[in-house]
Amino acid sequence: SVSSGINAEYGKLITVDCILVGHSLESDLHALQMIHRNVVDTSLVFYGGGYKRGLATLSAECLGRIIQSADAGHDSTEDAVAALDLMKHKLKTNDNVKL
């Protein structure tokens, strides 16, 4: 099936020891039918006030970076870099990071 072929390709890139970093990854992992034990989800790390904050909002507030602008729309590479940079920022600025 297509799904098993896709999973086989991801299996070549993502090993058991890899750490996946992203924002609101549950939908992506579900769509890929993937379960992975090492996931850092910035929507949970930066969770506050009873709701998940958006990646664009977090990027602007924490990094001073505008992403997902109306002109460019979503860019998966830009989103991935922003999520990784948010975690780097969190680790540098907060001793109480809970991963």
Distance between the termini: 35 Å
What composes the largest sheet? 2 strands, parallel
Given the structure, what is the number of helices?
A: 5
The dominant shape is globular
Mean pLDDT value: 87
Which series of helices and strands comes N to C?
HEHEHHH
Give me the Rg, rounded: 15 Å
Number of strands: 2
Percent of residues in helices comes to 40-55%
Low-pLDDT segments: none
Strand content: 5-15%
Assembly of the depicted chains: single chain
Which structural class matches the secondary elements? mainly alpha
Order of strands, widest sheet: 1-2
Your description of this structure?
This protein has 99 residues and is mainly alpha-helical. The chain contains five helices and two strands. β1, α2 and β2 form a beta-alpha-beta unit. The N and C termini lie far apart (35 Å).
Describe the structure using short key phrases.
99 residues, mainly alpha, two-stranded parallel ribbon, 2 strands, globular
